[in-house]
User: Which sequence fits this backbone?
């Protein structure tokens, strides 16, 4: 039985969901945690550990960071679908999303396979190391407005998320 979907919608002014801030905070948190691990487990000097981790983060998360920069510049709403080709839940969730997008041609879809280096945007948006696929994120003017993870087969879910911030939306909702 698939996990139920988790839905987050954020208030327009919530600074924690500014995409550039999310990337910066994620990198800062990872840098701190991984550097501390290297220092404590391997006796590395703090500066050396931070250099190693910074290089690792830039190499590993660079494509996801580049995608986030591009998305921050978009003036129109964007939906990011991060899934896997061999994921049954991803395949089951996509038709409702595509139907929703058919009725909203103003929204751009970017579909990314999780194995693509840009797919690591999943972890930046979720601020975690694991979670269910797919992830569907709605981004508008550089701000993450909604994130849905796991199975989502109801077009109405996307309508509610988009309605909370779209051209005619006015709700300010945070829901899990």
Assistant:
């Amino acid at each position: 039985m698939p996990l139920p979907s988790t839905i987050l919608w954020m208030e327009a002014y919530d600074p924690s969901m500014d995409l550039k801030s999310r990337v910066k905070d994620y990198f800062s948190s990872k840098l701190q945690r991984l550097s501390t691990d290297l220092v404590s487990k391997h006796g590395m000097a703090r500066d050396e550990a931070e250099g190693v981790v910074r290089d690792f983060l830039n190499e590993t998360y660079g494509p996801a960071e580049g995608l986030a920069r591009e998305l921050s510049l978009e003036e129109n709403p964007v939906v990011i679908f991060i899934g896997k080709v061999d994921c049954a839940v991803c395949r089951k969730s996509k038709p409702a999303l595509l139907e929703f997008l058919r009725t909203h041609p103003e929204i751009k879809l970017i579909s990314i396979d999780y194995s693509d280096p840009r797919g690591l945007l999943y972890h930046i948006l979720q601020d975690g190391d694991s979670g269910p696929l797919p992830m569907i994120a709605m981004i508008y003017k550089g701000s993450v407005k909604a994130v849905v993870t796991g199975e989502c087969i109801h077009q109405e879910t996307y309508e509610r998320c988009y309605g909370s911030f779209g051209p005619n939306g006015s709700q300010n909702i945070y829901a899990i």
